[in-house]
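for ur thesis appendix - ArsR family transcriptional regulator. copy paste whatever u need, i formatted it the way the template wanted (i think)
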Amino acid sequence: MVNLPRTRESADNLVQRLRLLAQPQRLMVLACLLDGEKSVGQIEAGTGIGQPTLSQQLAELRRAEIVTTRKEARQVIYSIKDNMEEMKIRLICSACDPDFGVEDLQALLDEKPVAAPAHAGRDVAAACFARIRMEA
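the 3d part is after this line
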């Protein structure tokens, strides 16, 4: 059975996520990053989105933890956070646009098994804590 949102909170979270992806420039950035990690200059050249708009959209994607960054010399390199995020992006885009890389999604599903989140199938509202022991 499909794990659909059963509470107002989970439905609101899903809507927030979909709103984040329902912005053309963010989708263009994500589509660009589906080809692999890129510098800001490469994203700008690949999408035609200029500054400061590109920086604003990248910041939104960072805050949502969809993309990650790393520094290479004086450049910031962006990539999609992980395989799960990549699959979500490809799935949403292919569901709404039949011409959008369905083969790529299938290849990703075939090649890279992804474990379901620990909370799959049940509502969980908990925090995880770690005990850190300081050596004297």
